[in-house]
Specification:
Helices cover 75% and strands 0% of the residues. With 77 residues, the chain is mostly helical. It contains two helices and no strands. It folds into two domains: 37 residues, no CATH class; 40 residues.
Length: 77
């Protein structure tokens, strides 16, 4: 899999990531179809998995922020 072309944010980072993941995505879709899932079934499942992953990341960030605020308050900061 290709890495980002430069470290940090850049204009085409999102597109570059899509290109980097495309072969893996196609392979997963093909495996799902071989197992008997329709392309729509597999695509919808991947969308839901991605959405749930983002929600997890956001929840983890919020938890860490709450911990930081609690520690700051407890330490008098």
């Amino acid at each position: 899999m290709n890495s980002p072309t430069t470290p940090g944010a850049y204009a085409d980072r999102h597109i570059d990531c899509q290109f980097a993941l495309e072969d893996c995505f196609v392979a997963v879709m093909e495996e799902a179809q071989k197992a008997g899932w329709t392309p729509s079934d597999a695509a919808a499942a991947i969308i839901d998995l991605a959405d749930n992953y983002v929600l997890k990341l956001l929840a983890n960030d919020e938890t860490m922020a709450q911990i930081s605020r609690a520690l700051s308050f407890r330490l008098g900061g």
